[in-house]
Amino acid sequence: MPNLTHNNFSQETLALHAGYTYDSQRTLSVPIYQNTAYSFESLQQAAARFGLQELGNIYSRLTNPTTDILGARLAAIEGGAFGVPTSSGSAAIFYALVNLAQNGDNIAFSNKIYGGTQTLLVHTLKRFGIEARVFDIDDIDNTLEKVIDSKTKAIFFESLSNPQIAIADAEKITKIAKAHGIVSICDNTVATAFLHKPFDYGVDIAVYSLSKYVNGQGSALGGAVIERNGLNELIKDNPRYLPFNTPDESYHGLVYASLPLPIFSIRLITEWLRNIGATLSPQNAWIILQGLETLELRIQKHSANALEVAKFLESHPKVKSVNYPALSNNPYHHLVNKYFTNNQCSGLISFESESFEEAQKICDALELFAIVANIGDSKSLIIHPASTTHSQLSQKELDLAGITPATIRLSIGLESPLDLIADLKQALEK
Question: Is the pTM for the entire model greater than 0.90?
Fold first, then answer.
């Protein structure tokens, strides 16, 4: 079987075949290499691998055949150069950012992102001496460049935000990023590469929580960092990114920019996975691979169901407003045609109920929807962001993100949309 990592196959074919050639047993399914360390052919080979003179397995904290196949398959679907799986989506975001920024630097981030991510950027990174500066996703032209200076190392945003379901105008963001020689990072978890491909619009790095739509059944934690083809050209000799262009003492003076490899990913593995170790287990990688094989089919069903539910909610007198870009009156609807496949917007919806008390009543009255903080499961889920997923944000941050005490977030699953609508109807009218 060929190693399908090139672009002459469609995404759905790559999701089934990319990155894997038969092993010695010719297993059709990717094997689980439940293994910690690897035997070297000689001490000379071991030394060459430790010195990055030869690529190959050393220890599963860095690489593992099962996780490597997942990384290659994700990169192929995304149209990227290299994919690095991590133990979670949070680890993927953290590693992508600290691979670029260090003490004294800053990053710019969109005001409409997941609450846990915002806490990571604003509070956790501050402990590393990295400042997070917010820009308005709805006013990119007037806010983004104002937070950029010579120490800005990354611009971070979500293609479809959680829970506002806002669409980022990626081309506007990446045009500004390229003008300043800054790496752009897009969290594409909600959309997935089957609805939106960030690299087609100038993005440099795509990050994922694989625990969501890619896995699809809430059965395995995982994350991924994927770099685009040609990213070396942006980083090499760029004064913003000295760690890539100056000798690394831990590798006896190696300069990453001199390597004929995807240097962002190689440094992420050798610096962050090696030293901190938020590594994806081969067992979880295998589980996620099973979900990836059906992602293209599932994301269409999630999207179709969500649109039906969104239309129902929009028509209900006890719902003040609905956030779902596929609705014709949504403020982001004009970006759907530009950025999303077949005008599909994934399975995430949020809406405004009449009050906090009403939101609480709706959540508790639903029967099919489980109160769960996850998204992207095959089963439908509901959560109240202000008191759970975004509860660590200040009132000012909640206001800037457009989250109120009456906001409810739905993750629409694969059930019959008629059953989901009936459940919501009885909860709204109870």
Answer: yes
